[in-house]
Each structure stands twice: as structure tokens, then as C-alpha cells.
């Protein structure tokens, strides 16, 4: 921007409901009294992006990499200073994307894990609710271990429930059977988890819809806050 303010580029649409929530989070978490106090954003809603978990399972990551790379190039050419991708599973490509592009890409997984690490003691157990793709690629598990935290993933039966919530509930715009969520929560609490990362942006939507407690750490919320700070704005006092 010619006025020197930073611009956040967003690759969204994965899914659209999560993208609108991310935008809403950025607006509500910014310490602003007028339009001009908010950050400038370029939002690219790429709803036809191939499903990330399916791409991982089917070995089609190169196709996915090309799509994201094209989007990052478009954002950079449009004047973005930073890029955010509010989709956890897509972060399987984050290192390769950053190698190929000079546009800084915020790493939602690192941001979330590091913020949790600041609050918990070494060895603390952290639950992870995510897509099969995110779990399979050990994205959060690796970051937690780097910080001395103990990652805990759901059992195979509970993971099926998580996927049901994401794909048959939130993504389809259908009601979620809260019994499924409670079953996963009981399991993770029973394993001694100090918190649970909502490591899928559809689960971020679910957290907002249900008004879940801060025991559930929303990765997308962590990304929104970091985006605001990097773009030179302040968080509302009740947020930080």
C-alpha cells in the first residue's frame, strides 16, 4: 500500500465458512475505533482447491503445491506483505512454499504450538483434534515435541468421530451430533490432556458455534492474532 501500512494476503475458501470466521476474528480482535484502524487484507477464496486430506492420501501433493504456489504469487503481485492460510492440513506444504516464495507465510502450526508452550510445563499433554491428513503428517505432533510437550491424538474410533464432525457436519452445513464431540473430549481429558488444539478450521467454526471453553485452543484464532500484530496493529485489551 502506498500509505506504508502492511497488507495481509489470505488464501481462503478451505472451507468458505472458516474463511469468513477468520476475517471476523481479525476484525473483532483488532483494537480499532474506526475503519482506518483495521488491517488491510486481500482475501482469495479458493473454494475449488482440492481437498487437502484426499490429496495427502492419494499422493497428489505436487498438484496441491502448484495451486498454492499460484495463489501466493497472485497475492504477492497484488501487494501483500504477509500471507496467511487458514487451513491446518495445507501446512504440510508450508516449508516448500516458503522456499519457493519470498512472501512471508505465517505458520499457523508453529504459532499455535509455541503459544501453548509458553503456558504449559515441559511434558504437559496436549490433545490434537484434526483431519486425518493433519494427523497422518504429524504436523502438530512434531511441533509439540520440539517444545517438550507430549502430543496426544485420538484413538482410531474417536478420529472417525472427528472426521464426521468436520466433513458430515460443519463442511456440509449440517447439525453436528454433540455426542460425537463429547466422546472425543472424554477420551482426551481421560488421557490427561491439559488442553486440546482445534487443529482444523471447521473445528474453529464448531468452537464458536458451541461456545466452547478455552480448554480448546483454536489454531485459527492464534493465526488471526499473529496476523494483526505482524501488520502493525494492536489486539483488543480483552484478547492480549
How would you describe this structure to a colleague?
- This protein is α/β, with parallel strands linked by helices and 240 residues long.
- The chain has two domains: 7-108 and 222-230, Rossmann fold; 109-219, Rossmann fold.
- The chain is 50% helix and 12% strand.
- It contains eleven helices and seven strands.
- The protein has helices at residues 16-29, 52-57, 61-77, 94-100, 108-119, 132-136, 139-146, 156-170, 178-190, 201-210, 219-230; strands at 7-12, 40-45, 82-84, 125-129, 150-152, 195-198, 216-218.
- The strands form two sheets. A four-stranded parallel beta sheet has the order 5-4-6-7, with helices on both faces. The chain has a three-stranded parallel beta sheet with strand order 2-1-3, with helices on both faces.
- Helix 1 crosses helix 11 and helix 8 packs antiparallel against helix 9.
- It is globular.
- The two termini are 27 Å apart.
Strand order of the largest sheet: 5-4-6-7
- Provide the helix percentage: 40-55%
What is the CATH class of the largest domain?
A: Alpha Beta
The CA-CA distance between the termini, in Å, is: 27 Å
Q: What is the CATH topology assignment of the largest domain?
A: Rossmann fold
The helix/strand order is: EHEHHEHHEHHEHHEHEH
Number of domains: 2
Summed up, the helix count is 11
Biggest β-sheet: count, sense, barrel?
4 strands, parallel
Please state the overall shape, judged from the principal axes of the Cα atoms: globular
Q: Using the CA coordinates, give the radius of gyration.
A: 17 Å
Low-confidence stretches: none
Based on helices, strands and strand pairing, what is the structural class? alpha/beta
Average of the residue pLDDT scores: 96
The beta-strand count equals: 7
Classify the oligomer: single chain
Second rung of CATH, namely the architecture of the largest domain: 3-Layer(aba) Sandwich
Query: Strand percentage, roughly?
Result: 5-15%
